[in-house]
Amino acid sequence: MEVTAEIKREMFWTMLLARRLDERAWMLHRQGKITFHVSGIGHEAAQVGAAFAIRRGYDWVVPYYRDLALMLALGYTPLDFFLGLMGRRGEPGSGARQMPNHWSMRSMNVVSLSSPVSTQTLHAVGIAMGIKMRKEDKVVLTTVGEGGTSQGEWYEAVNWAAIHRLPVVFNVQNNQYAISEPVSLQMAVNSVAEKARGLGLPGVSVDGMDAFACLTAFQKAVEDARAGHGPVLIETCVYRITPHSSDDDDRTYRSREEVEAHKKDDGLLRTRNTLEREGVLTPQAVDAMEERARQIIDEAAAQAEATPYPPGEEGAFPVYAEEVRHA
Amino acid sequence: MPEITLIEAIRQALDEELARDDRVLVIGEDVGKRGGVFRATQGLYEKYGALRVFDSPLAEASIVGVGVGAALYGLRPVCEIQFADFIYPAFNQLISEVARMCYRTNGEWTVPMVIRAPYGGGVGGGLYHSQSVEAFFTHVPGLKVVIPSNPYDAKGLLKSAVRDPNPVLFFEPKKGYRLIRGEVPPGDYTVPIGPAQVSREGHDLSLFAYGMMHHYALEAAVQAAAEGISVEVVDLRTLLPVDRETILASVRKTGKALIVHEDTLTGGYGAEIAAIIASEAFTDLDAPVRRLCGPDVPAVPFSPSMQEWFMLNPERILREIRSLAAY
């Protein structure tokens, strides 16, 4: 598939919007307006590369909590994000029952996730079983961090998909840290992609700061999976520029120099430079995008803040399917 | 009407549900060519194929987790855990995912699925092929827990479970698989999930039981009648949600309550029944609520002598009936 200038600009815009939304969440936390935020800063290029490789709304997505850029690419809105951050009425994924970033968007085949790590990887495999049973050509994209690959359920899921050559793209966003623990305390191999060898599927490691390299890698994996060639493991090497969450203090386990060095090679910056060099973007166009993002974010944040909490009694349901109240 | 065994009733229910609805699939270890280690799926692989009677890898978390994915995709998985004792690897999936999906998505996603597992001792199975695990799950809102005691209910309740829009844990008393026979009409019928059943009317005391212990309770009640003690036996059948009305109506009639389960005493399911009776029928009671349960040891020991020491039987239930009747 040709990556047109228009697609490139759309990819950049999605990354930029995700970054500015994420930064606003940190600001709201500092202001005491929200109680919790878990960040995707540093992951945007890789996520956008994945999102633009699938058929959005046709393929299935089983995400994890850092996937803000991926979710925006799938149609999740800034207002949805702020309603989730603030726990306000009408939050679309859970009716404000879930913590922020625990997405669910059935209209786009995005499945709900919980907080225990890697449980969702098995769900992706079950969805792929359904696709195979119905002889459809859909693909499942599922994501997790590198810490998540220490879980038994992650191995089980990849193993199952490999045995039955199911159409799953397993994306591991290796951001070098699971809260405080570096990769060296999660695995003895040098890259997550190496784990694929023992499980019998292709494993690819790609520079997650390069949105277009990611796009190419995911396009190939999605194409292979769709053609019935089985699952692929794609490790996107990113860097978690922020602390794990708003409750974490990363100064206790890594140096400022390390973080600053990674900021200089950030995916958003790199994409901007690439596109300006290619003439796809001008500095003026980027400025206009920044202004548009600021406006959208200001409006969405204000709208969310003006939205009340759901009535407390709404916590009583729906425990069972019969109790579901459709709007 | 033909008399068949409990296991044949299970097999018939699965066969008929697979035939009725092409969304239904069976997932488990050895359920395919082998037809299940207890033969619950005998002949189904040949009839419905390897995709709908699916031999899973030896990984219980996967059996349930993949089932979740399949259910999210719109299928109706019936997951088999070969022995209830092996359900713990799937505990995370059952608690974090299966039970909470409807609630956490405000009903956007539900997971209609059945998790079948043979439970119970007295079969020479030692610590890890004898356990009763129901109390772990009756504590969890979002799940339904069903335990049939006879072939008619087994077939009818399993069909209801497959058709239920919620996840249903279906525990089968494996000691009764070939021991318990009963009349089962050929063809389709259901037994609703929820209502308990007064399986023998009486007026001196109420005996509440389920599964294998209900089978024994009926035997004990017959012997008690010969001694002039009239025992009302209630087969709870559905443990979650619990049928409070039937329990309370029986206690109000007899004034005495004996709860019998094979699972260990402390924190067992009987405690909930006792609490319901104590809080809502206190003034109707003529005697303290009694519980006759497995001893508080980790699980059933292997040696026949120790197994016998652990297990309840009709004689021990009869002794308790006499004691309570004399109060």
Description:
The complex is a heterodimer of chains A (327) and B (327). The longest helix of chain A is centred in the first third of the chain and has 26 residues, at 5-30. In chain A, strand 6 (203-207), helix 8 (211-226) and strand 7 form a beta-alpha-beta unit. Chain A is globular. Helices cover 43% and strands 9% of the residues of chain A. Chain A has a five-stranded parallel β-sheet, sandwiched between helices. Chain A has one domain (5-306): Rossmann fold (3-Layer(aba) Sandwich), CATH 3.40.50. Chain A has helices at 5-30, 44-51, 68-73, 78-86, 119-133, 152-163, 195-199, 211-226, 256-264, 267-278, 283-305; strands spanning 60-62, 140-145, 168-174, 177-178, 181-182, 203-207, 232-237. The model of chain A has no long low-confidence stretch (mean pLDDT 97). Chain A is α/β, with parallel strands linked by helices and 327 residues long. Chain A starts with a helix and ends in a 22-residue tail after the last helix. In chain A, helix 4 (78-86) crosses helix 11 (283-305). Helix content of chain B is 37%, strand content 20%. In chain B, helix 1 (6-20) runs parallel beside helix 7 (151-163). The longest helix of chain B has 16 residues, at 211-226. At the A-B interface, helix 5 and helix 6 of A face helix 3, helix 4 and helix 5 of B. Chain A: One of its GO terms (biological process) is branched-chain amino acid catabolic process. Chain A: Residues 245-266 are annotated as: Disordered. Chain A: Pfam families: E1_dh. Chain A: Keywords: Oxidoreductase, Thiamine pyrophosphate.
